[in-house]
Amino acid sequence: MIRLEDVSIWYHEQALPTLEHVDLTIGEGELVLLVGRTGAGKSTLLGTLNGLVPHFTGGHLQGRVTVAGVSTASRPPREFAHLVGMVGQDPLAGFVTDTVEEELAYGMEQLGVRPDVMRRRVEETLDLLGMSELRRRALRTLSGGQQQRVAIGSVLTMHPPVLVLDEPTSALDPTAAEEVLATLARLVQDLGTTVVVAEHRMERVIPFADLVISVDDGGRVRAGDPATMLRDTPIAPPIVELGRAVGWDPLPLSVRDARRVAGPLRERLATRVPGPVTGDPMSPPTTPASPVAALTAEGVVVRYGPKVAVRGVDLVLRPGHVLAMMGRNGSGKSSLLWALQGSGPRQGGRVTVQGQDPKALSSKAARALVGLVPQTASDLLYLETVAAECESGDAESGAAPGSCRDLLDSLAPDIDSGQHPRDLSEGQRLALVLAVQLTAAPAVLLLDEPTRGLDYTAKRVFGRVLRRLADEGRAVVVATHDVEFVAGVADEALVMAEGEIVSQGSTRDVLGGSPAFAPQVAKILGEQWLTVTQVTAVLEADRQEVVS
Amino acid sequence: MSRRARSRTSFLPRDLHPAAWWVWALGMATAASRTTNPWLLGVVIAVVCYVVVARRSDSPWARSFRLYLYLGLIIVGMRCLFRVVFGGGEGSTILLHLPQIPLPAWAAGIRLLGDVSAESVLGGFYDGLRLATMVICLGAANALANPKRLLRSMPSALYEVGTAVIVALSVFPQLAESVQRVHRARRLRGHVATGRRALRSVIIPVLEDALDRSLQLASSMDSRGYGRAGTASPRSRATTGTFMVLGLVGVCVGIYGTLDGTTPRILAGPMLLVGVLLALCGFVLAGRRVERSRYRPDRWHLPEILTATTGVAVAAMVGGVTGDTTALDPSLTDLSLPLLAWGPLLAVLVGILPAWLTPPPASPFVGLEDEPEPSGGAPESSGIPESSGTASGDPIGARR
C-alpha cells in the first residue's frame, strides 16, 4: 500500500538530514505504530505519506514515496485527499467549518462526491464513531475527545484506504484518549483501513499493531513486529519495562497478557512491602510532611457567569510535598490553580500563603509567593533569545543578574543562550519557563499540565526536577492526565470532578484502586505496586541477599 | 416523495434558507426607507420583532438582535442631538433659546447651538427613526439566518471566497481567546510595565499562536483536498470577470435607484434587473468549471418562497403608494399628529405572515431528549459492562 524507497529528507539550514535512507513497505490493512523521541522526525515521516513533506513544509526529499502506486513527487497533497486521510494533534486548529455535520462533509465536497452518496456516508460515519447525537453541535462546544473523533470522521468520509494520525491523543484526558484509540482499533478490525499512527500512549495501540517503526536519533528508522521491536526501544511503556526488568519472554504487550504471566512474580511480591513511590529507591524515604502549611485554601469558589468551575474547595499544601491534581478536561483543575495563584478569578473563599492572600497583592508580590506555569507555557515567552528571557526574568523578580540562567542550567543543562525559545525542544522550553518562574523564589509552585508533549524520557527527567524542587522545601502541585507520571512523582493525589474534590489521599490510595487511574504496574501486580522502580528495587534487594 | 408530501415535510422544524430571510428583511427595510411616518415605522419595528422572537433559534448570532435594537435607539438619540447642536432653527415653534456660538468665517454654513425649533427636532426624530428601522430590519435578518449558512449557499463560483470568509470569521473568537490567555499569562510573570514593551509581550505570543494555527489549518485544508481541480483558461476567466464586474455595477446602480425615490425610474428596476442577469451569467459560467458537490444544500421550498414573496410584496405595496404622500411623509411645517392611512398599514402588516408561514427552527441538541421507544427497554443496558474492564470504567460517575 505504502512504499518508501531510500527516502532522505533535509530541512533548510540543517546540517544533518531529519530522515536518512528510509526503506519501508506497509501492507494493506496494517496498523502501524510509529515510536520515537519528540523531535526525532516522526511528524516528518508521517508528512511524507501524502506529500505535505516537502510540498507544504519545504525541505528536500530524496528517494521515492508511493501510496497505492502513486508517487507523492508527482502531485500536490490535495490530490492525495482520497488516498490518505491526515489527522493532526490539535483537531480544533484543523477544522474548516463550524458544525459536526458540515465538517464531516467538507472533504467529500472537495472531491465532488454525489450529494446522495455524501448524505449516506455522513450518516454511516456518525454511527461508526458513535456521535449521531452531536451532529448539529458547534465544533467549539465539543469536548477534546469528541473533537478528535470528528477530525477522524472528517477524513474517513472520503473513504481513504490509508489513515495517518499524528499523536491524536496528546491533548486528551485518559478517558477521552480511550475513546479515540478504541475508535482506531475498531477501524482496523472492521474496515481494514491501513492506519499509521504516532502515539505516546502506545500501550493501548500495541495489542493491535502489526508493525512498529522506531525513528531513532540521527534519522535512522527500524521496523519490525511489536514484540521484537519493543525489546530494546529507548522509549517504552511501563508494561514493557516491567517485562524487560523481570525478563519475561515473549514480552507481554497488553495488561491482559502480562497478568497471565505475572502469577509467580505476584506471589513473590505478596509478602513484600513496596518502597516509597517517589524518587530514587536509594534515597531515604520522604520526610514526613511538616506541620506548617505552605498554602491554605478554604471554600474556594470560581464561577464564570452561571457556570461554576470550582465549588467550595478546601486544600492544604505542605512544603516538600508533590500533589498531583487529576480529573477530566473541564473539571476545574486549571481554574483552581489560577485562583490559588491569585491571578485568576475567585468569587469566594480564602487563600492564605505566609499569612497573606495572593489575590490582594500586586501580581509581582503574588508571584513571589506562588508561581504558576500555565498550560501553554510558551505564552510566557516573547523575547528572541534564551539569554534575553533570562535577563528579563531576573529584572522582573529583582533577583541578582544571572540567577535565572543558573536555575536554568540546574534544570536543563546545555541550552544555548543564543537560541530562540521557539526552537527549543518541548522539555527545554518547559525548563526555561520554570526557571523564569522560580527566579522569583516562590514557596509554592503550581504547574498546569506540564507533561503535554513530553515523551517518556523527557517526562522522567522532568519528574526528577519536580522531586528536587519539592525536596528543597517547596510545595509543588501538578495538574496532569498522565497516570504513570503521577505514580512516579507525587506524594499525594486528588481527583476533581465538576469543580469538587471527589477523592484525595496518598498516591497509592487514590490511584491504586481506581479502574481509570490505576497505572499499568498496579493493574498487573495489585494496587500497592505503582511503578517499575518499586518492583526492581525489591528484586535487587533479593538478589543482594542471595549473594551475601 | 410526492409533491404533496414534500410540501408537508417542508413545514417540519428546520432552518429556513438564509436567503429567504434576507429577501424578507430587505423588503421590510425598503418599505421603511420610503416613509418617515413614526406610526408606520413603529409598526414595521413591531412586525420585525414579532417575527424574530417567533422564529429565531438559540444560536449565538440569534441573540445579537437586542444589540441592533440598542443601536436603533442610539441612532434616534444622536439624530435629535445633532439637530439641537448644529442648528435647529428652521420652523416657527421655538422650544429652547440657546446662545449661538459664533464661528469664524471659514466655517460659514455651520451653526453651533442657537434657537431650537420643534419642527427641526421632529425632523431629526423622523429621520433617525427611519434609519433605525432599517438597521433593525438588517439585524433581524442577521438573527434569523445563520450568516455562515448564507455564505455556504453562495454560488459555486464564489465558493473559495466563501470558505475564506468563513475561516476568517472563526479566527476572530480564537484570536480574542489567545489575547485573553496571553494577557493573563503576562501577570504571572509579574509584568507591571505598560507601553510598547507591554504591548510587545502580548502581541508576539498572540501572533505566533495565530500563525501556528493558520499553518495548521492550511495544511489540514490542503490534505483534505481544498483547491483540487478547477482549471480555467485565462480567456474564460476574463469573460467571467467582465460579466461579474458589469453585473455588480448594474446591481449597485439599480439598488441606489430603487432606494432613492428622486432618481429616474429607468435607473431603478430595469437597471437592477440587467445587473442581476449579467451577474447570473457570470456565476453560471464560473460555476460550470468547478467540480465540487455540496452537502445538503439549502433548497427553496414553499415556506422560503412565501417568506421572500411577503418581503417583496411589502416593499412593492409601500413603495407603490402614489398620490397623497402625506400618509408616508408627514408634514413638518405645521405641527400635528401624523395620520395613519389604512393602505400602508395593511401593507406593512403583511410582513408578519412569515411568523406563521415558516417552519420553526431546529434545535442543535438533537437526540438528547429521550425518544419514546416503541418496544420495551434496551436489554443490554443492565448486567456486565461490555468493555474488557481494564481502564474504561469511569469512577466518578456518568459523563453526561
Keywords:
heterodimer, A: 548 residues, alpha/beta, Rossmann fold, 2 domains, six-stranded mixed sheet, B: 400 residues, mainly alpha, two-stranded antiparallel sheet, two-stranded antiparallel ribbon, 13 helices, disordered C terminus
Question: What do these coordinates show?
Answer:
The complex is a heterodimer of chains A (548) and B (400). By secondary structure, chain A is of the alpha/beta class. Chain A has 2 domains: 2-234, 3-Layer(aba) Sandwich (Rossmann fold), CATH 3.40.50; 295-517, 3-Layer(aba) Sandwich (Rossmann fold), CATH 3.40.50.300. Chain A contains 21 helices and 19 strands. Chain A has helices at 42-48, 52-55, 91-94, 100-111, 115-128, 144-156, 174-191, 226-229, 238-246, 255-261, 263-270, 333-341, 363-369, 386-397, 403-411, 426-438, 456-471, 483-489, 507-512, 520-525, 532-547, and strands at 2-10, 19-26, 31-36, 60-67, 70-71, 84-87, 162-166, 194-198, 211-215, 221-224, 295-304, 307-317, 322-326, 348-352, 370-373, 444-448, 475-479, 492-497, 500-506. In chain A, the strands form 4 sheets. In chain A, strands 6-7-8-3-9-10 form a 6-stranded mixed sheet, with helices on both faces. Chain A has a 6-stranded mixed sheet with strand order 15-16-17-13-18-19, with helices on both faces. Chain A is globular. Chain B is mainly α and 400 residues long. Chain B has 3 domains: 12-153 and 297-360, no CATH class; 154-228, no CATH class; 234-294. Chain B has 13 helices and 4 strands. Chain B has helices spanning 3-9, 18-33, 38-55, 65-85, 118-144, 147-152, 159-188, 196-223, 234-259, 269-288, 302-319, 342-349, 354-357, and strands spanning 94-96, 100-101, 112-113, 116-117. Chain B has a two-stranded antiparallel ribbon. Chain B has a two-stranded antiparallel sheet with strand order 2-3. At the A-B interface, strand 6, helix 4, helix 5, helix 7 and helix 13 of A face helix 7 and helix 8 of B.
